[in-house]
Amino acid sequence: MIILGLNAYHGDSSACLVRDGVIVAAAEEERFRRIKHWAGFPSESIHYCLNEARATLADVDIVAINSKPSASFLKKIEFTLRQRPDFRFVVDRLRNHAKRQSIESELSAAFPAAPFKGKLQRVEHHLAHIASAFLVSPFKEACVASIDGFGDFSSAAWGVGRDKSINVEGRVHFPHSLGVFYQALTQYLGFPHYGDEYKVMGLAPYGRPEYVAALRRVVKLRDSGRFEIDTRFFRHHREKIDYAWEGGAPRVGTLFSQELEALLGPARHTNEPLEQKHRDIARSVQTVYEEAFFHLINHLHDKHRLDSLTLAGGCAMNSVANGKVVRQSPFRRLYVQSAAGDAGGAIGAAIYAWHQREQSEATVTNPDAPICVLAGDALIRRTVMDHAYLGPSANDDEIAELLKERGADIHDSGCRVTRATDEARLCQMTAEAIARGEVVGWFQGRMEWGPRALGNRSIVCDPRRADMKDVLNLKIKRRESFRPFAPSVLKDHVLEWFEEDGDVPFMMQVYQIRAEKRTLVPAVAHVDGSGRLQTVYRQTNRRYWGLIEAFREITGVPMVLNTSFNENEPVVCKPVEALDCFLRTKMDVLVLGDWFMHRANS
Questions:
Q1: What is the reported pTM?
Q2: Tally of domains in the chain
Q3: For position 498, which CATH number holds?
Q4: 289 or 368, greater pLDDT
């Protein structure tokens, strides 16, 4: 059975393909369109997934979408009658609803030669999120939670997963949302673009929690793990917000109201300097978010007394909060999928549909009642996602042909090109370059699924150099100086360098670096002594593991600095994009498969 999962008409549009319960391919549309967070219908991602599976759309049995506009219908009616929002707000919501119903026509237009003959299945947004984590996790049972901006009129859902079932026990409905709170404050701090919340996380350690008391007026904790926002400080529930979700970069209009500026002072404009006040607000935003987050997950643990937790939704990208789960809650294990945000809903919808297969969804007459979704007796196995290498790859012949075609450009840039005789030699040459302080573009194997570069589309550098952040920003990144770079560390050495051990294959948690080690790796130690680590395993990425091991043998340090292979664009997908990025920047080395390219003047 072939199931195609989609996240469509939203930011981070994506597709994945599941065959007989196994994830064959998954990719975000932005990698093909070359526009960050591309929103719309993921036709290019679908093409890739079908090609990788050597299938056509006519072979697909189910197309599963992580959106069910009919969900929470009574809640929507109740809200409209009670709040009486602006008429333009209602019209805009109806238009969005109509657009999301057009999946079949989009498929017909994109694949006229192989029409879709299967079944279309809509999976409620947060159920897809929860499935994207729990149903691919290594846990037999776990507490589960999804937290984001909004999807299908909810901003959060939680409950418990056991074996082959997910029981959704509670929800927070529109207009209350931790995701909207964080996004609105991100805009307030002068970071207006979709997905800029990570900048607030990076800025927060430079501040003090001076505005926590004020922001507790904005986010209020309620019984049973719930939370509310004071809607006076927001616009999304009563006015038409300028949203753009179709055919390009997503855009979200201003979410905060004048009342927020009355509470905190004038908002920062993008071109204004960052002051200590802004750093303090960032720290306070993170603190208040964590209070609500731990309020929810602690309630879950109190109820179920399980050791494991899975998280999904856009807020599950908050690696700072995630990294505190084991230290500051009773949970002992955490799993967060590599594409925890909306892109991951494509996998969630597909995996959910596989588990459910021919079993119909239970009819729910009360949308506020607990929902129990059973996977059915037909389940053969559960796929555990222990790596994220699900995207396109390039073979050696393709790379060799590219280097031949671009020989003049390579020569003009002063580069020497050699081909390593074997993998060990390639890793040794690259590790030596890193140890010399050179900036290396590393393009290998299948592209990562999710926003993080995890050792196949990465720029790797020496974490021991205190000036490496400045070097990277000068040569390639040109980004805010307060944003940290991440360490990729060999799994067997985590506890030697960090205050706790754990599996963090997708760079979704921040740990504290041991105090005595921080001065040894200043390029990956944040101002508060933390690092957003990636644990690297030989069995899931032998070549990247071999590179770091070679660097350890040279330097004694079992980690490298890892950042995404891009320059103000989506992470590179194809070899030509990696080569172009290398040639137009001041990168020192490019490793394309077995090929080692070195600037002569480096």
A1: 0.93
A2: 1
A3: 3.90.870.20
A4: 289
